[in-house]
Structure prediction request, 371 residues.
Amino acid sequence: MRGVALLGSTGSIGVSTLKVLERHPDRFRLVALTGGKNRPLLEAQVARWKPKYAGLAQADGKNGVVTGPACLVEAATHPDVDIVVNAVVGAAGLDATLAALRAGKRVALANKETLVMAGELVAEAARQGGGEVVPVDSEHSAVLQCLDGKEAPPARLILTASGGPFRTWEPERIAAATREDALKHPTWQMGAKITVDSATLANKALEVIEAHFLFGLSYDAIEVVVHPQSVIHAFVEFVDGSVLAQLGFPSMELPILYALTHPARVADAGVRRFDPVAAGAFTFEPVRGEVFRAFTLGMTAARKGGTYPAVFNAANEVAVAAFLDGRITFGRIAEVIERVLDTHLDEPVKDLATVRAADARARAAANLATQ
Ligand code: NAD
Ligand code: MG
Prediction:
């Protein structure tokens, strides 16, 4: 029996994780749960799962549940926890990832923003405490599954992208897209922030940075291809030119289960059985980098390194929140990110304080740019 802490239990990945745990009561015990502000859902989850610890990171105090942002680290470092599923969205997930790794836990990481902001510090925390990061993101889970048991390091990764709802749209139409248009993802049901990131393709830049830190490959060796069917999740090329890929109908439950059991595979991931005929034809296209500017800006920030990825992430979070609030148009998301990156001065990621300061400055600059 492995003890699990689930951070972000009230979100999309959180609820999918509970479905996975429900199917494997003999393997996992849910020890700790945290949500953001959705008290009714968290209380229903507490009643069902009876965890030893429950918290609401963005709520005011009331009996029964710990409140405030510190609940994330408390849940993640609980002594009965072996695996922390980090399904928080955004920078709020960083401290809990670092604390869990320092405490020697496995972190099943959906919160890609953690690695984008502070990939170097995540690796250091894992070394110090003996913890490990196992990706939940479907593309990175696919890479890990292709690498399993291979001694040779990969020569190249190709991450797939659905292309989002605006894959075939003209640039003028995309710039004027509404919140409703952006939230209509063609192949995945996810939280609002990542759904908008999938529409701008900022998500794929975040994922390239995530892959760089997870698998230790240079940016020259990580590529992206648009694959609208979302059935192939990633390709891994080896030095001899051989290419492996991982396939499956879109579902996060398989990558979540695999992050919990890796390197073992267990039966019953609750996924639709693969059927090549039903899957039909697979198509591939290049990313339209001049149209999806947020992607290109993210890739430039990635290559610059230092605190640029953290600044890209922070500016993107602020711009997406402003778009979801109806304060800026879709087309302005990339403009805000660009404005913030243009004024950033490079610095190496020395410590968490450097990252926090860069993140805070970028948020302030992005807030100004959205006005
Ligand atoms: P979501 O918005 O549905 O859920 C986010 C969760 O985090 C909720 O429980 C929310 O209450 C909590 N939360 C939000 N702000 C918080 C804060 N400041 N402090 C503490 N908790 C907070 O998002 P999601 O779609 O489940 O995505 C979660 C993470 O997983 C993101 O990093 C996303 O990029 C990644 N991811 C999601 C999917 C997917 O299919 N949904 C796939 C791959 C990766
Ligand atoms: Mg993904």
